[in-house]
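Recap from last week: sequence in, structure out.
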Amino acid sequence: MERVLRARIPSVESVLCDPLGTVLGCTTGKRHCNGPAFYISRFISLTALSSQNLAELKALAGPGGFVEDQTELQPSLTEWRGLFRGAAPLMLLPDSTAAVAAILGFCHQHRIAVVPQGGNTGLVGGAIPHSTADRPEILLSARRLNRIRAIDAANYSITAEAGCVLASLQAAAADAGRLFPLSLAAEGSCQLGGNLSTNAGGTAVLRFGTMRELVLGLEVVLPDGRVLDGLRSLRKDNTGYDLKQLFIGAEGTLGFITAASCKLFAQPRHTATAWLAVPDVAAALSLYGAARDSLGDELTAFEFANRLSLDFVIKHIPGSRAPLAGDSPWHVLLEIGTARESADTGGDLERFLAGMLERGTVTDGTVATSGAQRDALWRLRHSMSEGQKIEGASIKHDISVPVSRVGEFVARASAWAEAAVPGVRVVAFGHLGDGNVHFNLSQPAGTDPAAFLARWDEIAAQIHQIAVDFGGSFSAEHGIGSLKVGELERWRGGTTLQLMRAIKGVLDPHDIMNPGKLFRAG
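Predicted structure tokens:
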């Protein structure tokens, strides 16, 4: 048996399975369920598309534009955490908007399900295909749509295709003397299209906003093959509905983003970065408020983490070492930056922190004195998910609450988790500056990981309830995908869900785009 996430199941007699024999579903007979579990499944052959359909799709993708070898496909069929393993007879890799349009037009005509995929770095199964015996799904990858189409430094804008890796986009902007501010732990492999489709946030939201705030225009191929050409790079364009916003955060359910025009900013000339020890979350919040008041818009990032988050990094990630000598229960990573030539950024930060040390808000700290030291501090923060993954099984929650309620949320959620699962290890870190807490639970040491993961639904429901009690959300930046379909129904039902379904029905009446993501399929 292999741990998987339940997928769309058309009937008891039709369970998911890939041609190599990897178990991909259950025999519950349910159309869609949520939460990792173990199943005993019968093996079936993936009833593929007709050979004629496959040949036509490959021809539309062009030379080098498809992958059908199942061994080569496996990395694209597995989610980063291993919670989702899917099946697909074919992955298409078009290299132009015209090719995408032709492929989707064909799929619309023949009712072929399509799963868009970027860098496959998501954590909710949103880019994993779940082919069934009666409805195969093909992967549509943005990998070869990787060109920078234009950089307009004077307009502070960049136009790039959806398959551009985020780090490459950042580098292209820097070469033009500009800053593309989105920054994520996965920036070396995640792609612009995926960032757009999930409305990615990252570490600089408090200053620059999420992808919704960074996008000026989009080019999108609709499910029937029509192209929505909205690649304008205007700050003001008051001409009716802002259609691009429909596709940002839609997780590929309304169309396939092929390119975007995004905002750029002045490249910072001076930055200052500090790793700080604080006694509790209340002190971290006090520090954040004081930093906003004293440092103003130069405050770029304000991350926080509990001690266990850092301990797992030090334990498992080679080359990592603790930035401070003491054992603090909570840590803060703070960064400021400015494009002003004459700024004394380092001095400003040190003077501010001296006051915080005097007041006891900060108990210890270090300020990076070189680019290498800054990078080392950020590697600690960006490695927290990886460190916890290596430590063992974990149940993760991507929640947001008003910044002022973060401390209350962490306290209540921790108390509930520790009472419900004796010995559970709370790993809490995230973007304190925008209220996004990755409230993760690692299995009690020495226990059965399967038994722990079997409680996923129960635990997640309670943690999400606590977040909502504080005016928060159960999905801050990772999206819904397959993992949280039930939670979307629970917390965003009624008129909200009806409107979303209505929009989906107008743009994708045959439900070919990423079926089973956001909404239950069928």
